[in-house]
């Protein structure tokens, strides 16, 4: 009888170890899946970001061309070149190329992998994010308003926060264009509420016509977006709730979609 109990105990111990091993293996697999999904979300944004860079650079390149035309004309016509005019042109060129360089820096930072949580100012990160996507909004005459009561600091992965903003704004832009909304706009509001930092993003595209509305956060769910991957909003929710211990929700307002991001200050 005693030997039977010992055998049962040993078998139970063996089963527990096997179960623990399987749990560890499944956790490791899920982590790898999450990493893959994050990477897919980044790659899905790559094409759109390249398009935004093209929009951002088109105007500066035209400005550079216009700066050289009068100088080129004077050279061909053997007209004297004024020293102050040349210095002013050089100054303008420096300003334009610095702007273009900053755009590339923002683009590079967006695709960098954050290794650790850092303290960063929200307004600075939002400006960096807007610098990437504003060209595409301007092309379609979409007005972007940013309302911020103060410049709060946040501890977290700043590029992840940018990716969430870009995903939400890009989706709003696509729906505004597809529905041919007159006087289209996107509004970002930032404020502090108790011990949280709240970011809201709303548009006037007429709302999300999905029931239940939370379905838009399901993986591979696409809605009114031709060629979409269906992982942008899914990853956004995962980033906010897993990586930043926050909450991402959505509802329809009187004019359009209303996204709300709540993230603890610490």
From TrEMBL:
Under the heading InterPro entries, the entry gives:
HATPase_C_sf, HATPase_dom, His_kinase_dom, HisK_dim/P_dom, HisK_dim/P_sf, Sig_transdc_His_kin-like_C
| Sorted UniProt keywords | ATP-binding, Coiled coil, Kinase, Nucleotide-binding, Phosphoprotein, Transferase, Two-component regulatory system
- Entry coiled-coil feature ranges: 2-36
Residues in Histidine kinase domain copies: 52-266
Q: Which PROSITE patterns match?
A: HIS_KIN (PS50109)
User: What EC number(s) does its UniProt record assign?
Assistant: 2.7.13.3
Highest taxon of the lineage: Bacteria
Q: Does the keyword Ribosomal protein apply?
A: no
Name by which UniProt lists this protein: histidine kinase
Q: Which organism is it from?
A: Arcobacter suis CECT 7833
Cite the source lineage.
Bacteria, Pseudomonadati, Campylobacterota, Epsilonproteobacteria, Campylobacterales
């Amino acid at each position: 009888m005693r030997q039977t109990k010992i055998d049962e105990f040993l078998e139970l111990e063996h089963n527990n170890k096997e179960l623990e091993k399987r749990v560890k293996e499944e956790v490791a697999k899920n982590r790898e899946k999450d990493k893959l999904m994050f990477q897919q979300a980044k790659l899905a944004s790559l094409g759109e970001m390249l398009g935004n860079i093209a929009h951002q650079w088109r105007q500066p390149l035209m400005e550079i061309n216009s700066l050289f035309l009068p100088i080129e004309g004077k050279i061909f016509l053997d007209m004297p070149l004024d020293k102050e005019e040349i210095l002013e042109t050089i100054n303008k060129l420096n300003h334009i190329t610095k702007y273009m360089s900053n755009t590339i820096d923002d683009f590079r930072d967006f695709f960098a992998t954050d290794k650790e949580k850092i303290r960063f100012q929200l307004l600075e990160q939002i400006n960096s994010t807007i610098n990437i996507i504003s060209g595409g909004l301007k092309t379609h005459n979409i007005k972007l308003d940013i309302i911020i009561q103060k410049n709060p600091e946040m501890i977290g992965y700043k590029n992840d926060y940018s990716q969430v903003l870009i995903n939400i704004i890009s989706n709003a832009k696509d729906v505004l264009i597809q529905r041919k909304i007159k006087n289209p706009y996107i509004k970002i509001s930032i404020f502090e509420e108790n011990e949280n930092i709240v970011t809201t993003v709303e548009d006037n595209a007429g709302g999300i016509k999905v029931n239940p509305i939370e379905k838009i956060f399901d993986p591979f769910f696409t809605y009114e977006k031709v060629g979409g991957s269906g992982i942008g909003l899914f990853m956004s929710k995962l980033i906010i709730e897993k990586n930043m211990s926050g909450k991402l929700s959505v509802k329809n307002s009187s004019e359009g979609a209303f996204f709300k991001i709540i993230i603890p200050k610490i």
